[in-house]
Amino acid sequence: xxxxxxxxxxxxxxxxxxxxxxxxxxxxxxxxxxxxxxxxxxxxxxxxxxxxxxxxxxxxxxxxxxxxxxxxxxxxxxxxxxxxxxxxxxxxxxxxxxxxxxxxxxxxxxxxxxxxxxxxxxxxxxxxxxxxxxxxxxxxxxxxxxxxxxxxxxxxxxxxxxxxxxxxxxxxxxxxxxxxxxxxxxxxxxxxxxxxxxxxxxxxxxxxxxxxxxxxxxxxxxxxxxxxxxxxxxxxxxxxxxxxxxxxxxxxxxxxxxxxxxxxxxxxxxxxxxxxxxxxxxxxxxxxxxxxxxxxxxxxxxxxxxxxxxxxxxxxxxxxxxxxxxxxxxxxxxxxxxxxxxxxxxxxxxxxxxxxxxxxxxxxxxxxxxxxxxxxxxxxxxxxxxxxxxxxxxxxxxxxxxxxxxxxxxxxxxxxxxxxxxxxxxxxxxxxxxxxxxxxxxxxxxxxxxxxxxxxxxxxxxxxxxxxxxxxxxxxxxxxxxxxxxxxxxxxxxxxxxxxxxxxxxxxxxxxxxxxxxxxxxxxxxxxxxxxxxxxxxxxxxxxxxxxxxxxxxxxxxxxxxxxxxxxxxxxxxxxxxxxxxxxxxxxxxxxxxxxxxxxxxxxxxxxxxxxxxxxxxxxxxxxxxxxxxxxxxxxxxxxxxxxxxxxxxxxxxxxxxxxxxxxxxxxxxxxxxxxxxxxxxxxxxxx
Length: 688
Hints:
Layout: E1 14-16, E2 19-21, E3 25-27, H1 39-51, E4 56-63, E5 76-77, H2 81-95, E6 100-106, E7 122-123, E8 138-139, H3 142-162, E9 166-170, H4 176-181, H5 196-199, H6 201-214, E10 219-225, H7 242-250, E11 256-260, H8 264-267, H9 280-283, E12 294-296, H10 303-311, E13 317-320, H11 322-326, H12 330-335, H13 350-357, E14 390-394, H14 398-410, E15 413-417, H15 426-431, H16 441-451, E16 456-459, H17 466-471, E17 476-479, E18 483-485, E19 507-508, H18 510-514, E20 523-527, H19 533-543, E21 548-551, H20 567-577, E22 580-582, E23 585-590, E24 594-599, E25 605-609, E26 612-616, E27 619-621, H21 624-631, E28 641-644, H22 654-667
Parallel strand pairs: 3-4, 3-13, 4-5, 4-6, 6-9, 7-8, 9-10, 10-11, 11-12, 12-13, 14-15, 14-17, 15-16, 17-28, 19-26, 20-21, 20-26, 21-22
Antiparallel strand pairs: 1-2, 18-27, 23-24, 24-25
Helix pairs in contact: 1-2, 2-3, 3-6, 14-16, 14-22, 19-20
């Protein structure tokens, strides 16, 4: 296959100050959940992007000093010689594939509370911590400003020693420099506040410091908001003309502009709310303000849209975080004309959870993400089969499909049996809910890949019992029969279930709603799952004209969705639709006419008129086949192994099911140390 000539423009080299990127594919800085704690995990992750064809590969935000310390978020750091050693692991791997390595230096300000280092956070003034911690910044005086400039300059010098080709000045997303730029936050009366020229002074000085420090050996980039940081550090009220005026002062100073917007829930919004390429209206005029190259993101998965934005002069580089996570080899696949092989990002933001929860990021589409070094997994290559075994997989949901295609790539003979006519399992059902249409890509990619494998046979409408499965004569059987939502209310808030769950016909589960069986009267959706499911079900039912109340025992709606940038937009949308929201209340009873909610704090009960409840609580693994196979087979008739994978093993998110299927395929016939299934990363210290 050859590259489509329409995409040739994406493979032109672009000069960035003293360095040259080999093409226009630019992995923008993005968090990984590993940061300073996982240098080898990071080196493996970033190196894989370079191998996949990305011309520029950047770190996540990188602290320059202990006063920019951001737990539980595992940012990178460049404080000392130990950090230089850690980053050199990454730059070496990135350079091995002809890519440029960039580091995003970060000054915290009121966005960071220094909970670990216990240093006082510095800010444009004394202001509350923007992450909700009960600490305020110390208002910076002139000596603090001199120190901050020195810290940033020294970090740039360490970056050069570590082998980086590009160093960032980070002036957006609510961090220190964006607070200095802000007309709202910067009320200083000295030469660093007040007028626009004064508010841009510190960023101008830091860019000049960085360029003086690294000379002609590294490019200097600025990450900046196309809205002049909302005119107030993200307050949503941009001052007319400020972006243009700031570029009038700064436009030609750095070697590259990395543009975003102040609203992070839109910049990296879920596909539920934000389409591909959504930042174009914000960044379209930036190139007219500067002669330097411009990069921005937009969850780009379509090479046609990428080429269009370059051709129309919107961008010089196609920036990506999430698409580069879903498919590190996206550029190479476009270059080779293998567009059908691209694992397209579905916009679920499960990758972003790693940052908030402090663990190595994962991806629904790419189960090898963060496993490149510690498990030795490559996103495109798998070890050849370890035997001539025949494998039967029962169930073609996300776990079964992933296992089948990975085992097929290894060279095993695979039989995939699905009880229904349609492949995809829960992915198909959930993709039919409001806003989740792009999730069908999880199924489509895998079905397409399986279709290319002659050694994988797919049997639809094949509902298998134990005798049926054994009759196939496979050496190994993987049971991937999924799970079902419970109807008894069992969950974290009701470990004994709900004593009065309601009469038959008035109690619904998510499976009912996804199958098209909707309540016809006032409904309470009870959320003891705390992710996206209850919200999208409430939306679906409300769209049918039925009054809906969403109740949760947590003190906010969908608290886990905070980590995917979902909760705020979801909460707002439900309110605008007229869905009632009741937080901090547990559903204790339902009699078909009234739902009883008990306050989690006082125990006081409230009754709501309702003709139906939807219980979004927990799921029951569909593991009857697994137990039948493992519990009632004579030794002589047994296959070599029987395993359960995906939700059949342990119900979880779709990314968990895909990972489970992939791990099964990787580890079949492999020598795995069950006590130490992956390598344990350890950080460098300056004493090493």
